[in-house]
Design goal:
Helix content is 24%, strand content 24%. By secondary structure, it is α+β, with helices and mostly antiparallel strands.
Length: 152
């Protein structure tokens, strides 16, 4: 076994919580989610698409966020494996995903709907609740919530 040391890479899994549980923001509706997302979103919301993940504990308190991808004007890559790996690393009980439409619209495309279904199915395999997929607009404070619209 010692002959393998140095031949393969060590995998280190770590999640560092920097905020006390009592101080974490609780997500109780899409308006709260929108507020949290707008505080972490880049100032490029009207320039290119970005995809963000929020991870939550059992009490729906937001443990943290991660920018999953940054794309172009009309799309960005959403890798289910990366999203689930991050959620599992943080021992998340639930997740919320979001992306923006630089055009200003918030109506989901067929690709958005397909992505939502795929992520919800993946989460169910790991007992992670897929709480919402939101689409933000940079023009206003407008957003679209799949949960609010009964599409989950």
């Amino acid at each position: 076994m010692s002959e393998l040391k140095g031949i393969i890479s060590e995998i280190d899994i770590i999640y560092k919580k920097k905020i006390k549980s009592k101080d974490l923001p609780k997500i109780d509706c899409s308006a709260t989610t929108n507020e949290i997302l707008r505080n972490v979103w880049s100032d490029k919301i009207e320039l290119y698409e970005e995809f963000v993940l929020l991870v939550l504990n059992r009490a729906n308190k937001c443990l943290g966020w991660v920018k999953i991808s940054q794309g172009g004007i009309s799309g960005t890559v959403v890798d289910s494996k990366i999203i689930l790996a991050i959620a599992l690393k943080a021992a998340a009980s639930g997740i919320i995903v979001a992306h923006n439409h630089p055009s200003g619209g918030t109506i989901p495309s067929q690709a958005d709907k397909s992505c939502t279904r795929r992520l919800k199915e993946c989460c169910s395999l790991f007992d992670i609740t897929f709480l919402d997929h939101m689409i933000l607009s940079g023009d206003t404070n407008d957003y679209y919530s799949f949960a609010d619209n009964g599409e989950l």
